[in-house]
Design goal:
Blueprint lengths: L3 E2 L5 E2 L10 E6 L2 E10 L3 E11 L7 H14 L8 E6 L4 E5 L4 E3 L2 E10 L3 E10 L4 E5 L1 E4 H16 L4
Antiparallel strand pairs: 1-2, 3-4, 4-5, 5-10, 5-12, 6-7, 7-9, 8-9, 9-10, 10-11
Helix pairs in contact: 1-2
Length: 164
């Protein structure tokens, strides 16, 4: 990997050199990103999921998780289908975010889904709901390198902005 600094201690990987199935690991002063690359090129990549394990705190209570989720929805507005809070589970201390207005095309609806849990783990995936068979399948996210860098920066900024 040939990392580039993004200014927040987040290094974006050189995605063009990654083979399909490779898991890119990007360490930051505030946590660790992992993304499973499906395809890559000089402009961007398609990947199955992005995870961010923040080290800003070891255990997140529900109010802190809720503030983190709100911060993410305020910062990450540039995806094809922006995220909104769908469910707050106070018992298990996790929050689900989802795109409220999926993109309609190719006989299906495409949307993002993110899960935040009390350990400080954010998992972002993209899905396609097939109208014909009423099934949901995970599909790759396709982002340019610049959008991926911005997404990673916003994940860090959202987590580090939470005050007790």
């Amino acid at each position: 990997m040939d990392p580039r600094s993004t200014g927040l201690g987040v290094a974006a990987p050189s995605l063009g050199d990654l083979a399909p199935g490779h898991v890119a690991v990007i360490e930051t002063p505030h946590g660790r990103f992992e993304l499973t690359v499906r395809e890559s090129g000089p402009v961007g990549a398609a990947f199955d999921q992005l995870t961010y394990a923040t080290t800003t705190r070891s255990d997140w209570d529900t109010p802190a998780l809720t503030r983190w989720a709100h911060a993410l929805t305020q910062r990450i507005t540039y995806l094809m289908e922006p995220l909104r809070i769908l469910e707050i589970d106070t018992e298990d201390r996790h929050i689900e975010l989802r795109s409220p207005q999926p993109t309609q095309r190719q006989g299906g609806r495409f949307y993002y889904q993110a899960l935040l849990d009390h350990s400080g783990l954010l998992t972002l995936k993209r899905f396609r709901f097939d109208e014909a068979d009423r099934k949901r399948d995970q599909v790759p996210m396709q982002l340019t390198r610049e959008t991926l860098e911005r997404l990673m920066e916003d994940c860090v900024l959202a987590a580090t902005s939470i005050q007790d």
